[in-house]
Amino acid sequence: MSRPPQAEPHASVFVGIDVAKASVSVAVHPTGENWTAETTTRALRALAQRLARLTPTLVVLEATGGYEVPVVGALSQAEVPVSLVQPGRVRHFAQAAGLLAKTDRLDARLLARYAAHLEPALYVLPDEVQRGLMLLVARRRQLEEMLTAERQRLEQQNFFPRSPVRAEIAETVAYLERARGDTDRQLHAYLAQHPRWDDAHALLRTVPGVGFVTAVTLLAYVPELGQLSRQAIAALVGVAPMACESGQWRGGRHIRGGRAAVRHVLYMAALTAARMNPVLRAHYQQLRARGKAPKVALTACMRRLLVILNAMLRTRTAWSVPLPQP
To answer: Do domains 14-118 and 128-193 have the same CATH topology?
Structure first.
């Protein structure tokens, strides 16, 4: 007499979403289900509702520089657990698994397997006020990048005195400068409208070398500042030196990963602080005297500056120059 079939235990469901500009490719693990959807508001809301009915343990997307934002927003509104991961880590996982082919559908399946095997940390969607500051800071950075490129093009026109495009480029530079100024005014007004950042902004600006752009970028993109240990905050931003060793071989230490926009403003702040800030100037000169390359010394100053800012916000203490040791 045959035994009745026993019910299989409920398997955890993991979803991978490969995001492109006009569409997304979705894969479900372990069922293998796969489909595509458009990135219109209506289609993304329908996708979020469909995934919510699956009650997934986790949905994983790559941080692709902006295209993933509306997808994450739709999933968060549907209360679907989401994790954003760095593309480099996913490619390393693919190489380790021997998955070298690359298409949108395969990438979605890869992300689903990545979620199932590693279960990365959940992504906490910023609230509306925080997201507004992030959008303004991102827009300023975009204008700055466009302005730098157009100024370089205008400089190149000096080799062509009768260039027919010189006037147009000059006009574009002037427009971008006005737009950047308008965005700066919007940022100041936005901070004035939302006093939640008043204390933190005032503390950050007391440090020599930390200007307005550095302060608002940290407030926008590192809300964890002041809440983590020095090691954790350095790793989060991507300024912690990573060892590269094997056996008796000792390679150089390099920074990697983290939040690129924050590292950029920290680098510019470190350039200024290495001249103006007595603590960081001494730190920079000490490292150079020990034979460290200028960029290595500046990277160390970036990390020291971030650690100092993190401690200041944690203890709610303004900047003060330490007294010299006797």
So the answer is: no
Phi, psi dihedrals of residue 277, rounded to the nearest 5°: -90, 120
Helical spans, DSSP H, in 98-127: 104-118
Q: Supply angle C-alpha 310, 211, 268, rounded to 5.
A: 85
Looking at domain 14-118, its CATH architecture is 2-Layer Sandwich (3.30)
Give the bridge partners for 23, in sequence order.
38
pLDDT value of position 158: 86
User: Nearest to residue 108, comparing CAs of 33, 24, 16, 32?
Assistant: 16
Neighbours of 309 (CB within 10 A): 25
With a cut of 50, list the residues of the chain below it in pLDDT: 1-2, 4-9, 242-251, 323, 326
Measured between alpha carbons, how far apart are the two ends of the chain, in Å?
92
Query: What residue segments make up the domains of the chain, in order of their start?
Result: 14-118, 128-193, 195-243+252-326
| Spatial distance between the Cα atoms of 45 and 242, rounded to a whole number of angstroms | 40
* CATH 1.10.287 corresponds to the domain 128-193: yes
CA dist., res. 59 & res. 130, Å (int): 23
The crossing angle, in degrees rounded to 10, of helices 128-156 and 260-276 is 70
Q: What angle do CA 115, 135, 85 make, to 5 degrees?
A: 15
* Helix axis angle, 212-221 to 260-276, nearest 10°: 150
* 41-78 tens-digit pLDDT: 999 999 999 999 999 999 999 887 678 888 998 998 89
Residue ranges in 119-245 assigned as alpha helix (H):
128-156, 166-193, 198-205, 212-221, 230-237
Is the Cβ–Cβ distance between 310 and 223 less than 8 Å?
Answer: no
CB 81 within 8 A of CB 58: yes
| Predicted model pTM | 0.74
